[in-house]
Amino acid sequence: MKLSAPPAGWTLKSDVVVVGSGVAGLTTALQIRSHNLSVILVTKSTIDEGSTKWAQGGIAAALGPGDSPSDHKNDTLTAGAGLCDLGAVEVLVTEGPEAVRRLIARGAVFDKSETGEIALTREGGHLRDRILHAGGDATGAEVSRALLKAVQDDPGIEVIEHALVLDALLTEDLQIAGVTLHVIGEGSRDGVGQIETGAVVLATGGLGQVFSQTTNPAVSTGDGVALALRAGAKIADVEFIQFHPTVLFLGNRSKGQQPLISEAVRGEGAILVNGKNERFMSAAHPLADLAPRDIVAREIFRQMELEKRDHIWLDARSIIKFSERFPTIYQSCIEHGIDPSKDLIPVAPASHYASGGIRVDLNGRSSIPGLYACGETACTGAHGANRLASNSLLEGLVFGARIAFDIALSLKRDLEINNDQRTPFLIDTQARQEIQEIMTQGVGVLRSKESLEKALQELDRISKKTTTDAGIDSWETTNLFLLAKAIVLSALMREESRGSHRREDFPGAQDRWLIRLEQKLVNGEFVIKESPLTFQSREK
């Protein structure tokens, strides 16, 4: 299966192609350059767009006094609810501090305490203060700024903006030989072209736009995961969609990207209250308002159901100088008529982060030689069933470096592209909103066999809404359709509740499901396989 698209009208060559300009893509590109390889960096919008710059909370790393990678590991395993690959977690937490130091060396400036040390705060699921932040609540923007400057200063990195990567180019023995892409522009590189290369790194971020309401920007349509699927790569853990508990509630008719109220606000003392102004998290978890995100989201949803409300409230009035500590959030609230220093903030859960993605090993290698994935696009196994807060930026930093080293050791050049015989396929653009509504209604915070089977039936109906009208909108809609179906199939198969996957008809976790669900496309049909965890999920 491949996207219906015009034939390539131009060709470029590069040692490596990196797709995506968030923390994962930028870090990987810079690390590849340290091995003196040429890089073409492809990004869907401008290079400074994407999810990274929206990250408010920060980066988790064991840098504070009394903290250790072992403590960070234990918190990560607890949040991951038994499905973390221990090896991936150990790589993340042990190589994390050095990865952060490299980022600082590249110019990233983090907030300091009164003593001049890096200021560390706490977020949900962390038992120690280990979250670095910048500009109060603008960490992602600062990380993006520093990495972008380093990329722009490197003449060995060619950037192609406003380009949607379409499909993989493969050799006869199914190795990566390049990608096709569509560039929105004028001149010799507009329209569909191809880049020939021996290694492709997919760092396209998340898939939040598969739901009606999300914290993800408009570009987050899961293009990298969908490309990998069509190429025959394995994906895993896609049923585990993390819903951020506290997204500014703007009304049920509000669609697309919603303003995020960072977990760090609760880390600084804010509390969740219901319609009776009662705290409810203290009775739900020992960490109360700083419980792991899946638990907080579920409890908020439960309060909403009990009171028949469409949101609850966050009380941040105890935070001194809120506007200085959280300037971005403060401004967002003020723009919507809410003063956090005086008013309760209406919040509700919205889709936020995909813990699953393209299944990769500890060096970011997918099941297709030459195809790598990094960041939210990848499933390293480090997040398990629920990502620990602020481990996402760290994952991009750590695994980007490992991918670059592996490419430097194994890169193949001048591969012969095979004649692509895959069947073209395209879903009509008009189905996009339907897909989003189906996923929001049936595959949200709480799921059931009934809701999932209904969603699957609706998606099967949509699969017949095909078109030959190739373009950005129909390509994105097709990607969203593939990912929606993959999520529903895995969620339907996993008959338990674990981490960010909650089944009303199977409310408890079961040891039988201490496995990974891997999927791939075979002749256009999804095939799901139960796979053992690559590494022991917990130490005995």
Any overview of this molecule?
- By secondary structure, this protein is of the alpha/beta class.
- Among the domains are: 244-350, Flavocytochrome C3, Chain A, domain 1, CATH 3.90.700.10; 424-507, Up-down Bundle (Methane Monooxygenase Hydroxylase, Chain G, domain 1), CATH 1.20.58.
- Helix content is 30%, strand content 19%.
- The protein has 13 helices and 25 strands.
- The protein has helices spanning 23-33, 69-79, 86-105, 139-152, 223-231, 263-267, 293-307, 322-325, 327-335, 392-410, 432-442, 449-462, 472-493, and strands spanning 2-3, 11-13, 16-19, 39-42, 59-60, 120-121, 131-132, 157-160, 163-170, 176-183, 191-196, 199-202, 213-214, 235-236, 241-248, 256-257, 271-273, 312-315, 345-354, 357-359, 371-373, 378-379, 424-425, 516-522, 525-531.
- The strands form 7 sheets. It has a 5-stranded parallel sheet with strand order 8-4-3-12-21, sandwiched between helices. A 5-stranded mixed sheet has the order 22-20-14-24-25, covered by helices on one side.
- β9 and β10 form a beta hairpin.
- α2 packs across α3 and α11 (432-442) packs antiparallel against α12 (449-462).
- The protein is globular, with a radius of gyration of 22 Å.
- The two termini are 43 Å apart.
- Mean pLDDT is 93; it is low at 536-540.
